[in-house]
């Protein structure tokens, strides 16, 4: 009950603040920019990645090309790191961590690169799967999009002169992100916003249905009594799971349908994501989902300018022998910016939390960690790389020195 009350407190007080912040920003939350093609043509307007990403809070995902942080470890530390995780290597080799070995560390302990679009300044397209990412602070990161649908996707832009233009990735040269006008002449639809009830509690925020549908013009598919339905989300009042194979869909008109037969309304649904300000993204598995009730959104979400300039992560690491180290923190030998993400689960509900929202991380044995958010809310997270023994350890850089602390020796991390 205490854990649930923490969640309810979060979704209540945080969104009261969010309402205040968003009432003046109607369309600022939609991705906006200028696209330049290889032919030199330019287009400017709201952007959408395929049929998915459309908000500044949506995620751009790829793989980092290298892990330069390994240069700070001694050969002994690298050897010990390899030995320590050799037994877990089959589990670690995934889209999140790739382990290969060569003499110059190229491709060694390489992680996923994930960030909200609001942290990006530009994308320079090098090839169908290679991109140079420029952050708002001027830093550059080379990424590989193999296995990720954000690199290689068709980009749709609502050009202010031409209207809707669909652009092939192979014809793109550069994308420059720009602040979104408060009131757009054209947009992809109104935001999906509401309260999702699941076994763990209630979460209120911007909703992604089946990981894809994000705006009211997106379509929910299903069938009832042999009839096929394609219903725009802006006509739907609520969706309630009815077992594993169907859902009760109540329309704003009052009509109710019991739909089945597609992954929008049965257990093939990939999950429901709720973006909660002050927390991050909450990804609710269909097994845990109960019901979503939609309501009018208090705006379109955080604006481009609200993200500010990316900052390096700073804090203090307490070690099991009583030592403390304060300085720049590189978490899991990879995450070094406050916009990067900590991943963990609680009862099949996945939490994806920017480090900027985290105050403390305390490992609890080999398989979980306690996480305290900046507003004081508490989570106990398990599974995955970031909060278990699979974590590659913490690197602290201070006054020109560096200290490496393996995960199993970390007592607590306090972030500034």
- Kindly state the number of beta strands: 31
Compute the CA-based radius of gyration.
22 Å
Strand ordering within the main sheet: 4-5-3-8-7-6-11-1-2-9-10
The SS-based structural class is: mainly beta
Summed up, the helix count is 3
**Largest pleated sheet:** 11 strands, antiparallel
- Overall tally of structural domains: 3
Q: Helix fraction?
A: under 10%
Our estimate of the beta-strand percent is 35-45%
Bulk shape: globular
> What average pLDDT do the residues reach?
89
What does this 3D model show about the protein?
- With 416 residues, this protein is mostly beta strands.
- It folds into three domains: 130 residues, no CATH class; 99 residues, no CATH class; 111 residues, no CATH class.
- Helix content is 9%, strand content 44%.
- The chain has three helices and 31 strands.
- About 10% of the residues have low confidence.
What order do the helices and strands come in, and which of them pair?
Blueprint lengths: L1 H21 L9 E6 L4 E8 L9 E6 L10 H11 L3 H4 L4 E2 L11 E7 L3 E6 L4 E6 L4 E5 L10 E5 L3 E5 L4 E6 L15 E6 L2 E8 L10 E6 L2 E6 L3 E7 L3 E6 L4 E5 L11 E5 L3 E5 L4 E6 L19 E6 L4 E7 L10 E6 L2 E6 L3 E7 L3 E6 L4 E5 L11 E5 L2 E5 L4 E6 L1
Antiparallel strand pairs: 1-2, 1-11, 2-9, 3-5, 3-8, 4-5, 6-7, 6-11, 7-8, 9-10, 12-13, 12-21, 13-19, 14-15, 16-17, 16-21, 17-18, 19-20, 20-25, 22-23, 22-31, 23-29, 24-25, 26-27, 26-31, 27-28, 29-30
């Amino acid at each position: 009950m205490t854990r649930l009350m923490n969640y309810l407190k979060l979704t209540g007080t945080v969104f009261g603040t969010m309402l205040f912040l968003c009432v003046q920003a109607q369309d600022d939350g939609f991705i906006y920019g200028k696209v330049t093609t290889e032919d030199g043509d330019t287009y400017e307007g709201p952007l959408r990645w395929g049929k998915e990403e459309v908000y500044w809070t949506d995620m751009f995902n790829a793989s980092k090309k290298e892990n330069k942080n390994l240069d700070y470890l001694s050969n002994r530390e690298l050897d010990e790191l390899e030995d320590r995780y050799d037994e877990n290597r089959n589990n670690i080799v995934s889209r999140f961590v790739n382990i290969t070995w060569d003499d110059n560390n190229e491709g060694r302990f390489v992680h996923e690169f994930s960030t909200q679009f609001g942290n990006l300044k530009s994308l320079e397209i090098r090839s169908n799967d290679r991109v140079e990412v420029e952050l708002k602070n001027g830093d550059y990161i080379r990424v590989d999009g193999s296995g990720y649908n954000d690199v290689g996707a068709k980009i749709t832009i609502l050009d202010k002169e031409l209207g809707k233009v669909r652009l092939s990735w192979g014809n793109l040269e550069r994308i420059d992100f720009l602040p979104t006008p408060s009131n757009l002449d054209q947009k992809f639809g109104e935001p999906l916003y509401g309260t999702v009830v699941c076994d763990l509690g209630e979460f209120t925020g911007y909703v992604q249905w089946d990981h894809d549908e994000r705006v009211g013009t997106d379509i929910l598919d299903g069938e009832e009594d042999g009839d096929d339905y394609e219903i725009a989300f802006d006509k739907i009042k609520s969706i309630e799971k009815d077992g594993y194979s169907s859902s009760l869909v109540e329309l704003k008109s009052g009509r109710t349908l019991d739909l089945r037969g597609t992954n929008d309304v049965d257990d093939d649904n990939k999950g429901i994501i709720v973006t909660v300000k002050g927390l991050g993204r909450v990804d609710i598995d269909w097994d845990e989902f109960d019901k979503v009730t939609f309501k009018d959104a208090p705006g379109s979400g955080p604006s481009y300018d609200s993200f500010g300039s990316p900052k390096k992560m700073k804090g203090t690491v307490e070690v099991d022998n009583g030592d403390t180290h304060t300085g720049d923190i590189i978490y899991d030998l990879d995450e070094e910016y406050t916009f990067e993400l900590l991943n963990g689960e609680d009862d099949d509900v996945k939490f994806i939390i920017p480090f900027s929202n985290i105050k403390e991380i305390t490992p609890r044995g080999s398989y979980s960690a306690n996480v305290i958010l900046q507003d004081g809310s508490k989570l106990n997270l398990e599974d995955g790389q970031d909060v278990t023994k699979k974590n590659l350890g913490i690197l602290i850089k201070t006054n020109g020195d560096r200290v490496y602390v393996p995960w199993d020796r970390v007592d607590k991390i306090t972030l500034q």
